[in-house]
User: Fold these one by one.
Assistant:
Number 1:
Amino acid sequence: MSLISEGADFRSPIAAGAGLGLVEPSLVASSIAEPSLASVGDYIALMKPRVMSLVVFTALVGLAVAPGSLHPLTAFTALLCIAVGAGAAGALNMWYDADIDAVMTRTARRPVPMGRVQPGEALAFGLTLASFAVGVLGLLVNVLAAALLAFTIFFYVVIYTMWLKRSTPQNIVIGGAAGAFPPMIGWAAVTGSLSLEPVLLFMIILLWTPPHFWALALYRTEDYARAGIPMMPVVAGDASTRRQILLYTLILVPLGIAPWPLGFAGALYGVTAIVTGAIMLALAWQVLRERRPVERASRHLFAFSILYLFLLFAMLLVERGWGGLIARLAA
Amino acid sequence: MKVGIAMNEPAKDDGIVLTEAQKRARRSRSIAIALALAALVVLFYVMTLVKGPMVLIRPM
């Protein structure tokens, strides 16, 4: 079942957004003729600060649990570069996706569709930030971390935003890798190498992404359909998406517990992963049994999935990273 | 001839004249860029002090 309107005309999607009442028409007009009125706050909004905070947190965990030592200032530099790199990716995403952002309720008030920042300005801003973030990370920390950051930005902008997002319902399954790289970058900043542990952290975020985003997509289906984005509920339908959410959660939960039996994490992490994993499974089961227009279970799963990932990484930080981080700061 | 003079006069072009709001926005953006560049200079300076000659060695 496809919810994408065959008659949809996205040749001028910002204008289409204005037509739908999502974008202020005067701002659309002014965005074409007038010099920029963009404030510093608009440029900060381009960097997707909420996404940045999650990226910084998971990178911090990768950095803190890695063996070896790193000067606190070098660690700060690494986190700063990772944050700026994530911001660059966000700005480039908003540059490219301005057309579909304009027709989605959730994103219509972003600076580019609102006309406060010109697409060219967002592009220049993103490219500048990306160059600085990768360059500084390579010069002041190490080349592997910089290469991984460059690849992450490339993956998010080119592979996910430009290619997968508009062409396949598997967009966030593969594209989720971009969000999963930060702990690997943090690890590489300390060790200059990679091993099984950061790959496991990568896999946890990768497999967490589909249930998280599909739960959101279940109650935003019309929004995605209007924008012409082939999200799973839009293309495969409601029931299939709910089954796949449960399937991915069934793989995610044991993987989330795995650091404990593998010796990367202690009992506190293990118990947390089991308890929160059980809640994830229960919520995914409720999502499977739920039918539209009811969307309570989907909303609950979306909200809890954020807490789930946060708790797993926070427990790693408490168990393994905190002591090491304090020792590094004291050194 | 009057008409000829008028045709040869260069058209008066003041370019784009910014409004006060646009000037304020540009000023705030300029200050933010200056602060970011200053922070970058400080970061490189302090990192050089911290790392010493090792700052030139960039491990994989």
Number 2:
Amino acid sequence: MEASSTLAPTPATTLVPPTAGGRSLHRFANPGRFLRIAARAQPWLTGVALAASLVGLGWGLFWAPADWQQGDAVRIMFVHVPAAWLASFGYLALAACSVASLIWRHPLADLAAAEIGPVGAGFTALCLVTGSLWGKPMWGAWWVWDARLTSVLVLFFLYLGHIALVRAFDDPVRGYRAGAILALVGAVNVPIIKFSVDWWNTLHQPASITLTGAPTMAAAMLWPLLMVAIGFQFAFLALVVARLRAAVIERRMRGLLMARAAGA
Amino acid sequence: MNPIMLPAPRIRRMTPASLLARELRLSLRHGADTLAAILFFVLAASLFPLAIGPAPETLGRLAPGIVWVCALLAALLPLDRLFGADLEDGTLDQLLLSGMSPAVIAATKALAHWLTTGLPLLLAASPIAIMLRLPPETVPVLLAGLLPGTAILSLIGTMGAALVLGARRGGVLLPLLVLPLAAPALIFGVGAAEGGEFARAPLLLLAALLAAAIPLCPLAAGAGLRAAAE
């Protein structure tokens, strides 16, 4: 500011140059529509998520019958299994967003991939923690190198790598691009890791501990489980949409500030 | 002034072969960098007897795992500079303008990394394995697994190096990206060395992993290089 005042007065009819802020505003013209739709959808998503989760969890934790073999410990399942489903669903959503981002350079998909990462990692962590809590009474150990636990652990590391990579660049677009490539590589790798871990586990220890050998589930347990799954699914969507809205608004504010700084 | 007819400058196009020759020449001139990874491998592996005791039966049981994990970590060390120096001095831009596809550049770099890190690791692995009291008849199986294994690590590592190019703290980030992806190679490699007469299946699976990694990793790495140079 000091320096500019000593220079020749700028002509009054300066056109505001298309600044970086202006361009990013232009790029987020479409996200503007997203913001309007998301603002209307958000209360519904959050409402369904809370209602279904609370009803399902209450049903599962208090009214559903205890397992004839596992007793009350089986109730951890009502948190654990939906969390595990969402951990895989989250990575699938991440890969889908990455495809959209790499092929169509869709700016909203870039942001969505960046925001799905922490939510998916959160559900993966929930799955691991509840699995550990379930393992203590059932298997007598907090952690067993069971094939499923191990593959979920590797999935958790993949999430963490993606989260760290997306946020490691000064230029956010570079981070989105690298994160999208990594997510796709990870998506190709997830089945390979799953297979290799299954193979490794059968090699190392007898199949005394499998979750697949459980008896088919009674309907009294299945219904609350599905209820919680629906609730968690909506919670996932609600969290991602809320984070996405915040990210779009944040980006837009930064663009406005940059435009103002450039105009001043 | 009589015009001197200068011979037309011979423009030497960069080819994969010349890029490979350049990489190998560079690693020869900076021999200490190449040796550092091998030294790390040897040092890290010799810490294990100190940590778990010198009993031959314990060491022999753990030897394949120790060799594999140490090789995995040692192969990570030079990855940080694989593209880093080229990005800083503009060589990477020149390479990308040379007409070679980014995937070919990445594949050549991966081959150079394998020749300068993977192959020396392979050579250092057998004395280390014998020092760790691995039964001598198991050593060839271990090496047979390490041969495709180190190549897989080079390919995955090249991809990781291309992705973190230009990142803050890229060196810290790299293991976080590469190690989970390398888990299947580790499982099959150690499985082969411990498999006894059933070593054939994991070795074939390792070869399958390599066959999948050879086309896929350079593609992803090339996309990463292009994103880094944008």
